[in-house]
Write a structure and sequence with these properties.
Strand content: 15-25%
Number of domains: 3
Strand order of the largest sheet: 5-4-1-6-9-11-10
CATH superfamily of the largest domain: Vaccinia Virus protein VP39
Bound molecules: S-adenosylmethionine
Structural class: alpha/beta
Length: 481
Amino acid sequence: MRKLKVLSLFCGCGGMDLGMLGGFEYLGHPYPEHPFEIVKAYDNDPYCTKIYDENFSHKCDVADVREIEISNLPDIDILIGGFPCQSFSISAQNPPRLGYKDERGMLFFEMVKILKEKQPRFFIAENVKGLLSANKGQAFPMIIKEFEGAGYHVKFKLLNASEYGVPQKRERVIIVGCRESKDFENYRFPAPTTRFNKVPLSKVINPEDNLNERLFFSERAVAGMLLVRDKMNKGRVQNLDEPCNTISSHLAKVSLNSTDPVLLFENRYRRFSSTECARIQSFPEDFKWGSVSEAKQLKAIGNAVPPVMMWHIAKSLSEILNAKEKPHVDHVSTDFDWPQERMVQLTLFEPEILYITSLNREKLLLGSCRQGTIEWIKNNQLYNYPITDQELQDHPELLDVKKIIILHKNKMVGFYNVLDVDVVLKPELIGYGYPIKSSKRSMESKYILFTLSPEPQLDKDIPWYTFSPIIGKGLISPSNA
Ligand SMILES: C[S@@+](CC[C@H](N)C(=O)[O-])C[C@H]1O[C@@H](n2cnc3c(N)ncnc32)[C@H](O)[C@@H]1O
């Protein structure tokens, strides 16, 4: 099989690129090679690129991406890059659009420029969670629009590295673009592999580092931190039984007076060693770091995309290369009234409650929606419902739903297969263009989000009395009953 050619922008020390290529081992698990090869990689930092060059047989160019002569680039199949996004300016035009004023925000346009000119089959962009809410939530939809304007069908998802075998709760927005609509229909984000069995931090702690005096904070720093800790939630001591909080490029300057994750060992506080940081980011043990100072290593490590998480993303892309063509299915018509004698009496269902039943032993959910969201559900093939942590704990079956019926009043909006179930925060939902009705719910509110694909028809009789109401208005959660 021909390997697809990849161009990597902002490659750093190569976390994203290693995941893309595969062919490494982490915590005893093999991560096999993917059918991809990197034909060009760019970063303008002379230190992280040294690390990069030591670890790959191809070499990267130390260059500013704004200076790339696009017409001299080789042909590529995939463009990847975690574009820096410290700020985005929005022009006060009608309609408003992304501005070009700030240098760093502008770097995203370099990806768009290359896409427009080279038209690779795919692209993958990575960014911090904050991108979803940047500029009060206005920037992200515009970014997606720019990618679409370059000729791509675009999907995005907030992934948590800890759900993919990485001992870190690092959340990153992954944007995948496909030039061909057939690829877009076939593409699915990778299903979590460790949502319920996360790798704890203890797995990557180096016992020798507990004896390294250099890593411990001075008594003065500890006394200063303890004075203000209650007020300021500082001194973020990590629980060894859970994945670590997110580490950042700030690692070299970790202090007790910030929110950086630290360890408590025998009542003394210490920072992580560079070996531990590389493991927390899921770099394999044989990745070479020694070509630069420890401070430069830490900066590159903190900036990286965890190779193991990226490996899963690359795998999900490689899977569509082998995907068989699926028959195209049109949406189920909204005008369709269910024959009374065959099925449930739809008016028996309360609109603000979720019901569950089993269909051929698969969980089938029945939910409703308001008029204003019907188009959104159909266009995005997503269905959401606000949910609390308690409700999720009480109803794990929600994560195992395989089919959904969505109603509006006594009309069927659609009968769908569920491709993926996720829990997202409000800003992510806004990022999907969801028409939020009230501002009552905070940005921290959670929603269960189902990714759907339409089924041609519902050909089973499902008696109404098999549906049990599980969550919704007026229902008491089992743990409160
Ligand atoms: C978040 S890091 C990328 C990390 C990388 N994807 C990885 O997984 O290791 C962003 C990178 O963009 C690079 N960068 C910032 N501005 C740049 C520019 N104008 N041209 C080239 N690289 C740039 C930085 O040096 C940094 O390494």
